[in-house]
Write a structure and sequence with these properties.
The chain is built from eleven helices and 20 strands. The chain has about 400 residues and is α/β, with parallel strands linked by helices. Strand 15 and strand 16 form a beta hairpin. It binds adenosine-5'-diphosphate, aspartic acid (ASP) and magnesium ion (MG).
Length: about 400
């Protein structure tokens, strides 16, 4: 008998029939005698609908109210699941994030978990009740409801697994595991049996939406194994584990596509020490995460600095850049939202050379222009135009022979 934390995503909870399906799966685990904590997302595309409704009543909805709104999606799921389990004769209780003591900071819509106090659920687990917890949400120190960023239910699940000392955290979704790239974008993508936290973290940050990147960060810090698997079958999925437990040695583990970033280019600015420091400090203060940065110097000692930010922070970024240019009394800026970032990720890159050249050649072969490049020890990312995103993903996936046929 084990304590198991399972998370079911919105794709597994499309409608009440799917809720009943999941309830039946939970019943089987319960009958085996396990103690179960089940974390749920909102049903299907509920969160998207809620975001859409907010935009219909407000041009820039307040973040506190946004969290109040978005957190309702998960509450519908947990209540319905508890009822469905009760109907099957399985004792179950639903809890909001606040009720299970998920305490976060006050960064609305992107909050980070500070602590979890699981005393509230322990006695129920001991009485063999299934505890159903709303994912994606917590409360700050003033009891305001917060949310953890889109896809954040994965992070709720890993955090609960860590707090409860579970053996592993199961993430149930609509694909059989983590693939070499999004199987809904490249038909040839192959399921990966095991990959390291480091690789999964990069892939998640760079667009592999199958796991929320913060869930991987938290699992890595606490050595919690994440098992990504399908809620539609019983097949073994993908294990996300420490690096020394990954058997298969490959150079590139996976390829990701990110389409929610925009590029800002500030042009015609003086070439003087301290300017970049000032701009990026202002962005950092406003909690804008800058991803890639490229600076180039033109003829008359004028600089251009291009950088990428997520579209979510684009309005804040524009305001900051405009104020900075006003203070500088020179320069101008352009925004390009039609970009895509394609990245190759693998710990094997640490000990191999020529990977960048192979990736760039693959893109050249299909006539795709590279607009920006950024590398780290275990990844290479390029910015291409949005229209070229899918083609670039496919080309890089093929170049590293990641497909089923290879
Ligand atoms: P859930 O509702 O279960 O949280 P998500 O939509 O957040 O589901 O995540 C599952 C989806 O992630 C898949 O349907 C797939 O399209 C996408 N995805 C992106 N990259 C990958 C990848 N490398 N491996 C598997 N799935 C991926
Ligand atoms: N329901 C939230 C979202 O759609 C959280 C999640 O699904 O993990 O982003
Ligand atoms: Mg998800």
């Amino acid at each position: 008998m084990a304590l198991i934390v399972q998370k079911y995503g919105g794709t597994s909870l499309m409608d009440t029939a799917r809720i009943k399906n999941v309830a039946n799966r939970i019943k089987l685990y319960h009958e085996q005698g396990h103690q179960l904590v089940v974390v749920l997302s909102a049903m299907g595309h509920t969160t998207d609908y809620l975001v859409e409704m907010a935009s219909e009543v407000s041009s820039e909805p307040g973040k506190r109210e946004m969290d109040m709104l978005l957190s309702t999606g998960e509450q519908v799921s947990i209540a319905l699941m508890a009822m469905a389990l009760d109907e099957l004769g399985v004792p179950a209780l639903s809890f909001t994030g606040g009720q299970v003591g998920i305490l976060t900071d006050d960064r609305h819509t992107e909050a980070r978990i500070h602590s979890i106090s699981v005393e509230r659920v322990r006695p129920h687990l001991d009485e063999h009740k299934v505890c159903i917890v709303a994912g994606f949400q917590g409360v700050d120190q003033h009891s305001n409801i917060t949310t953890l960023g889109r896809g954040g239910s994965d992070t709720s699940a890993v955090a609960l697994a860590v707090a409860l000392g579970a053996r592993e955290c199961e993430i149930y979704t609509d694909v059989d595991g983590v693939y070499t790239t999004d199987p809904n974008k490249v038909a040839d993508a192959r399921k990966i049996d095991r990959l390291s936290y480091e690789e999964m973290l990069e892939m998640a940050r760079l667009g592999a939406g199958v796991l929320h990147s913060r869930s991987v960060e938290m699992a890595s810090k606490n050595n919690m194994v994440i098992h990504v698997r399908s809620s539609f079958n019983n097949a073994q999925g993908t294990l996300v584990v420490p690096e020394d437990e990954v058997m298969e040695q490959v150079v590139v583990r996976g390829v990701s596509l990110k389409t929610d970033e925009a590029r800002i280019a500030v042009v015609d600015i003086p070439d003087r020490p301290g300017l970049a420091a000032d701009l990026f400090s202002r962005l950092a203060e406003a909690q804008v995460n800058v991803d890639m940065i490229v600076q180039s110097t033109g003829k008359d000692q004028k600089n251009t600095i291009s950088f990428t930010v997520t579209e979510k922070t684009l309005n804040d970024s524009r305001r900051i850049v405009e104020a900075w240019l006003r203070d500088l009394e020179s320069g101008s800026y352009e925004v390009d939202e039609e970009i895509a970032i394609v990245s190759a990720v693998g710990i094997g890159m640490k000990s191999h050379s020529g990977i960048a050249a192979r990736m760039f050649q693959a893109l050249a072969n299909v006539g795709i222009n590279i607009e920006m490049i950024s590398t780290s020890e275990i990844k290479i990312s390029v910015v291409v135009s949005m229209d070229d995103g899918r083609g670039a993903l496919q080309a890089v996936h093929e170049a590293f022979e990641l497909g089923k046929a290879s």
